[in-house]
Amino acid sequence: MRVEDVVQDGHRLKLAVSLQNSGPEEVEFLYSFLEVRDQDNNLLSSFADSLPPSLPGDRQVHKGTIELFGPLPDSVRSVSIRLASYPDEKVKLQIDAIPIP
Prior knowledge:
Strand content: over 45%
Mean pLDDT: 94
Number of strands: 10
Radius of gyration: 14 Å
Oligomer: single chain
Structural class: mainly beta
Largest sheet: 4 strands, antiparallel
Order of helices and strands: EEEEEEEEEE
């Protein structure tokens, strides 16, 4: 997982992300288990858009967005993203300390 861009539009924050599976087996995700937390480990409300529910082992890059909804507190300076494969959680994706403009 890679964050390509961070855009703050008023009270909305959008993270443009890309996912790529370099392994031989398909990996499944449930984005309802996506966690986005601020630098103080507070859980933020978010949803994923245009990301596939499964990533085949074809090395193709899949792009989408993670959007935080509701006004972000002024105290939020960075966010971290965590997502694990479903149902076995063998693949764990994590990006820490993504700066917020």
